[in-house]
Amino acid sequence: MSRLFPSLVLCTLPFFGLMTLPSCSGNHETHEHHDHDHEGHDHEHEDHDHEHDSHTEIKDHGAEASHDHHDDIVMSPADAARFGVKAEAAVKDPFSEVVKVFGNVLPAATDRTVVSATTSGIVRLAPGMEAGKAVKAGEGIASISAANISGGDANRTAKATLDAAKRELDRVTPLLKDGLITKKEYNEALQAYEEAKSSYSPGAASGRASSSIAGVVSELLVKDGEYVEAGQPIASVARSQRLTLRALLPAKNVDLLPRITTANFRPSHSTGASISLAERGGKLLSSSASASDNTPGYVAVYFTFDNHGDVVPGTPAEVYLIGSERQGVISVPVTSVSEQQGENFVYVKLDDHAYAKRPVTLGHNDGRRVEIIDGLAEGDSVVSVGTTFVRLAETSTVVPEGHSHSH
């Protein structure tokens, strides 16, 4: 093909090197000029490659210099404010030794009453009556009816007996004054009236069982529609002002007992921060190994505290028993920690737009704050509120206007 189209080959080859040519000619002089130009082009291309290599080295060096910002999480100040993201400085403060145990909330012994059936019959719970319901003093818990019960209503029979005894007493009283009957006959009528009166219960007549105190229904002891005997317990009501926290300390941690001062706890129905007994007028009642309530392998520790209406007696709870203090411990709010695939992380605010994800090693947890053994330095600005939103921003590719990770 080169014999047939020599000029085409000469015109085509330089195209990839010089991109443009003034002309193509078949004479030898022009061909020599072309070769010379091509050699010059090779030198220029070589110089260009050299410059490109140098530029690449500089660029790589710059990329290496900005590598620290490559994994930054970007969130604009406006978005941080909108989602409530807040950060606080990590400082070294006193932190107490903590043991997390199981426990439950009990009504105080002096603040509890039992509501009993006033008569025998079928119990009907008041509308909406359930464990956890707040009731007032005198409020009805249930009604009891003996209608359609074999044997009838014993209290109704007692009422009839009372009415008859009252009529007889009323009849003989004036006769005694007129001397028409003896004192013995009068006393017999009076005794019959008193006995009938003691057998009759006005409360049973109404069939109403009510609470004698204001508080919270801690337990319902019967089901709606169930038959009950007179005097049978129907419900337990506890005052909501003061409650008892019972914590079960494993026997292996019994050495902590002399150092226990207070506790934090989280009721099973709560998903928020734990409750501090120190902020609820909490008082340690017992922390002696002899205080065991026959729970094998555990020692019961009791506290009393003020209820603000957010804790229901009988509720299970996670309890953080707090012992002696240690100084110079870095800790963060439990809300700062994000657990991902079995590892723990916090987010450190680098500037108004950038956050960094830091792996951390956790220590003790008192239910409100958690000790950071490794991964943070004093002074680091750690996200304490809105951690979830910063975590979501990890997967976002949106970069706020005016901010870039290219440095």
Integer-rounded radius of gyration: 44 Å
Alpha plus pi helix count: 7
Please, what is the average pLDDT? 76
Q: Report the strand count.
A: 23
Given the helix and strand composition, which structural class is it? Answer: alpha+beta
Distance between the termini: 55 Å
In N-to-C order, the SSE pattern is: HHEHEEEEEEHHHEEEEEEEEEEEEEEEEH
Strand coverage percent: 25-35%
Q: What this model shows, in words?
A:
- The strands form five sheets. Strands 3, 12, 13, 14, 15, 16, 17, 21 and 22 form a nine-stranded antiparallel β-sheet that branches. The chain has a four-stranded antiparallel β-sheet with strand order 1-20-19-18, with helices on one face.
- Helix content is 27%, strand content 34%.
- It is elongated.
- It is of the alpha+beta class.
- Helix 1 (6-18) packs parallel to helix 2 (28-65) and helix 4 runs antiparallel to helix 5 (183-199).
What's the short story on this structure?
The chain has 407 residues and is an alpha+beta fold.
SSE topology:
Blueprint: H1 6-18, H2 28-65, E1 73-74, H3 77-82, E2 86-89, E3 92-107, E4 112-116, E5 121-125, E6 134-135, E7 140-145, H4 154-177, H5 183-199, H6 202-206, E8 208-210, E9 215-220, E10 227-228, E11 233-238, E12 242-250, E13 262-267, E14 275-276, E15 283-286, E16 298-306, E17 316-333, E18 338-340, E19 343-349, E20 354-359, E21 361-365, E22 369-374, E23 381-385, H7 387-393
Antiparallel strand pairs: 1-20, 2-23, 3-12, 3-17, 4-11, 5-7, 5-10, 6-9, 7-8, 9-11, 12-16, 13-14, 13-17, 15-16, 17-22, 18-19, 19-20, 21-22
